[in-house]
Design a protein that fits this description.
Elements (H helix, E strand, L loop, with lengths): L2 H6 L3 E4 L2 E4 L6 E7 H13 L3 H19 L2 H4 L3 H14 L5 E7 L2 E7 L4 H4 L3 H15 L2 E9 L3 E9 L11 H8 L9 H6 L4 E3 L2 E4 L2 E7 L1 H9 L4 H12 L8 H14 L4 E7 L2 E7 L13 H11 L6 E9 L2 E8 L1
Antiparallel strand pairs: 1-2, 2-3, 3-10, 4-5, 5-7, 6-7, 8-9, 9-10, 11-12, 12-14, 13-14
Helix pairs in contact: 2-3, 2-11, 3-7, 3-10, 11-13
Length: 336
C-alpha cells in the first residue's frame, strides 16, 4: 500500500495539529519533518565525533517504539512474516526501498536498499542503532555487532543476540503516552487540505515540500535528541540553510510567519499561535507531540529549527525563553 493510499483510506488520519498513524500497530501520534534538516544534523554530529551517541539515540528510539507500539502478537510472529510486515511499513512511508530480516547460522541478518539516511550521507552509526534497537526489543536481549556494510544503495547488518544480557530502559506507559498526545478535534486547516492546495506534494511513497522530502516520524526520536543535547546549536544553521533555498527572500515577513504556522499545524506539531510584539516573536504551541521516553519531554530540536527559520527574516533573532505549562509550549525569540 502506497503512502497516498494510507491517507486516502484514513490509516494516516489528519487533524488540526496532529497526524495519527493507525497502520497495523498500536495507534500513535506521528509528526512530519523535513528529511534534509534531520539527516544533515546526524551527519554533522557523527563527523564531529559523536557516532556512538547517535547510535544510542537510534537504538533507544527503536527499542521504545517496538516495545510499546508494536503489539506482542505481531512481535511473536514467525520472523519471515514479521519481516514482510516491517518491509511493507517502512517502504510505505518512504524510509527505504527494500528490507529483509532473517536468522542465518545463529546470526541475525538485516539487508536494506536505499535507506533514506544512508542513501544521503553514506556510512553512519545512527542507522546501525535503529536495527540494534529492533533486535533488542524483539528478543529482549543484548546485541553484539558482528558486521556492518553500508553503501548508498545497499546495506547489510549482522548481529549476534546475547541472551545473557537483558535490556532495561524505562518508558511511559501507553495510557499516559496516549493521554498526553490526545488532541481535542478542532476545525481548521489539515494536512489533507495542504495536499489539496499543493502546499505538499504526494507522489506514491514520498511526501515533498517544494521538492524536498518530508518523512513521518514518531516524535520520541526528537525528545531523545533533546535529552542527549549534542550540537543542538547546529540545528538552527542547518534549518536556516534549508529554508533559505526554498523560501523567497522577498516574501513579506507576515507571509513567512503564516507559512510556518501552516507547516507546523499540518505536519502534526500542535495547534499554533504566533504573535509579534516589538522585537519579539512568540510561538504558542498547544498540544505539542510527546514521546515514549521516561525522561522529561524536550522540544529543543523543534525550538532550534524554528530559530533557523526566523533567521531568514532577520539573522539577529535569538532564543530568549521557553516555558511549558500543562500542554502549552511557549517559545519567545527576540532580536538582540
Amino acid at each position: 500500500m502506497k503512502i497516498s493510499e494510507l491517507f486516502r483510506k484514513n490509516i494516516l488520519e489528519t487533524g488540526v495539529g496532529e497526524v495519527v498513524n493507525k497502520l497495523k500497530i498500536k495507534k500513535r501520534r506521528n509528526s512530519l519533518f523535513f528529511g534534509d534538516i534531520f539527516i544533515n544534523y546526524v551527519r554533522d554530529c557523527e563527523a564531529a565525533g559523536y557516532p556512538k551517541e547517535m547510535m544510542d539515540i537510534g537504538q533507544k528510539w527503536m527499542f521504545l517504539y517496538f516495545k510499546q507500539l508494536v503489539p506482542n502478537t505481531v512481535k511473536k510472529l514467525p520472523l519471515s512474516i514479521l519481516s514482510r510486515i516491517m518491509k511493507r511499513v517502512w517502504i510505505n512511508v518512504g524510509l527505504m526501498e527494500d528490507f529483509n530480516i532473517k536468522v542465518n547460522n545463529g546470526l541475525m541478518e538485516i539487508e536494506t536498499r536505499k535507506e533514506a539516511i544512508t542513501g544521503t550521507i553514506g556510512r553512519n552509526q545512527f542507522s546501525v542503532g535503529l536495527f540494534i534497537g529492533i533486535c533488542n526489543a524483539l528478543f529482549n536481549s543484548g546485541v553484539e555487532v558482528v558486521r556492518v556494510s553500508q553503501t548508498k544503495n545497499h546495506n547489510r547488518y549482522v548481529f549476534r543476540i546475547n541472551k545473557d544480557e537483558t535490556i532495561k530502559i524505562e518508558y511511559k506507559d501507553k495510557k499516559t503516552y496516549d493521554k498526553l498526545n490526545y488532541l481535542k478535534p478542532v476545525k481548521g486547516f489539515t494536512l489533507n487540505d495542504a495536499f489539496k492546495r499543493k502546499i505538499f506534494q504526494l507522489r506514491e511513497n514520498r511526501i515533498y515540500f517544494r521538492g524536498k522530502s518530508v518523512y513521518t516520524v514518531e516524535n520520541t526520536l526528537f525528545h531523545l535528541i533533546g535529552e542527549k543535547n549534542i550540537l543542538t546549536d547546529k540545528i538552527s544553521q542547518i534549518s536556516r540553510d534549508f529554508f533559505s533555498n526554498i523560501i523567497d527572500v522577498d516574501t513579506p515577513d507576515t507571509r513567512k510567519l503564516g507559512l510556518i504556522k501552516i507547516l507546523l499545524q499540518t505536519m502534526g506539531w500542535g495547534v499554533v499561535k504566533i504573535m509579534t510584539k516589538e522585537k519579539k516573536i512568540i510561538f504558542e504551541i498547544r498540544n505539542p507531540p510527546f514521546g515514549l521516553q521516561k525522561e522529561k519531554d524536550n522540544w529543543i530540536f523543534l525550538i532550534k529549527a524554528l530559530l533557523g527559520y526566523l533567521w531568514i527574516l532577520d539573522k539577529n533573532f535569538k532564543l530568549k525563553s521557553t516555558e511549558y505549562h500543562g500542554k502549552l509550549l511557549e517559545i519567545v525569540y527576540s532580536k538582540s
